[in-house]
Design goal:
RNA binding, SpoU_subst-bd, alpha/beta, transferase, 7-stranded parallel β-sheet, 2 domains, rRNA methylase, putative, group 3, 4-stranded mixed β-sheet, 11 helices, methyltransferase
């Protein structure tokens, strides 16, 4: 028998494969490595939570920084804006829209006010308004032109009566903002100040709620409410914060005849801590024991009305 030449070659592995043997190139070893912690659902681009995060960020940014024009859509909202004399750039009507009394009124008011009426394809109105529920009509509104706080203080100093302003803290509903603007104008106030961040802004909703008074009463935005309060103090203003459990009530406080700033917080959060610490007086509104709190715009209206009464009484 012929001797196998490989019989005595210990440690030599037999193989039927021809050519060089290929390894995994480290792929198996890399595959065994951990991939790290699982990202949060809102950080995974394919997850619905990520889309909700993006939408939330868009809403938050829109509260304090509005870029471009706003579109109000729907026949009733457009009519309300036109009746309230909200500044508008154009009235946009979709081609083929059926006419009714509201559409005819909108076109007539726009013509009387010199607002351009444009007729566009329905798909174009879908695109520019970002809403398919427009009922064939939209109103293009320019961004609100905010006043400067320093200018408002200077203008109030030249007035016949002491200045009276309202500062809103933690108010994010534009309807509340619009109602406060309306009350401030009704009771002889000089203006409303809102924070630049985390606050409602003067949108079409605020315009409508103000019943057009936003066209005449200035609204200013402050980068820092604490610094703004100190500016009013330096100008001789008393800072009155509205909050439960204050050392004064509306019945006992008689400082409405002096230059005054009324600080109003939200119904839920109230006034923020730093703003409260910079108020000269914390005042509450007397009401029935079983009622927890008043809506922000209602509370502001009650106090503005009382301060206006005090000023009328002092002028007699």
């Amino acid at each position: 028998m012929a001797k196998n030449p490989n019989h005595d070659r210990r440690g030599v592995r037999k193989s039927n494969k021809k050519g060089a043997t290929k390894g995994s190139g480290g792929q198996r070893r890399r595959g065994l490595r951990g991939k790290g912690p699982t990202p949060k659902a809102e950080d995974r681009t394919y997850h619905a939570a990520h889309q909700r995060k993006l939408e939330r960020q868009r809403r938050e940014s829109g509260r304090h920084e509005r870029v471009g024009n706003e579109f109000v859509v729907g026949r009733n909202p457009v009519i309300e804006c036109l009746r309230a004399k909200v500044p508008a750039l154009s009235l946009v009507v979709a081609q083929g829209t059926g006419h009714d009394d509201r559409l005819s009124e909108a076109v007539a008011i726009a013509k009387a006010r010199g607002i351009v009426t444009r007729e566009v394809p329905r798909l174009e109105l879908d695109r520019i308004s970002g809403n398919q529920l427009h009922q064939g009509i939209g109103l293009e509104i320019p961004p609100y032109d905010y006043a400067d706080v320093f200018d408002l203080i200077g203008e109030a100093a030249t007035g016949a009566e002491p200045g009276m302003f309202v500062i809103l803290d933690n108010i994010t509903d534009p309807r509340n903002l619009g109602a406060v603007i309306r009350s401030t104008a009704a009771f002889g106030g000089n203006g409303v100040i809102i924070p630049e961040r985390r606050s409602a802004s003067v949108t079409a909703v605020a315009w409508r709620t103000s019943a057009g008074t936003a066209a005449r009463l200035p609204v200013a935005r402050a980068k820092n409410l604490t610094r703004t309060l100190n500016e009013f103090k330096d100008a001789g203003y008393q800072i009155v914060g509205l909050d439960a459990g204050g050392e004064h009530t509306l019945d006992t406080y008689v400082g409405g005849v002096d230059p005054v700033v009324i600080v109003v917080g939200s119904e839920g959060k109230g006034i923020s801590r730093l703003v409260r610490e910079n108020c000269d007086v914390i005042m509450s509104v007397p009401m029935a024991d079983w009622v927890e709190s008043l809506n922000a715009s209602v509370a502001a209206g009650v106090v503005l009305s009382e301060f206006a009464r005090q000023r009328r009484a002092a002028a007699r």
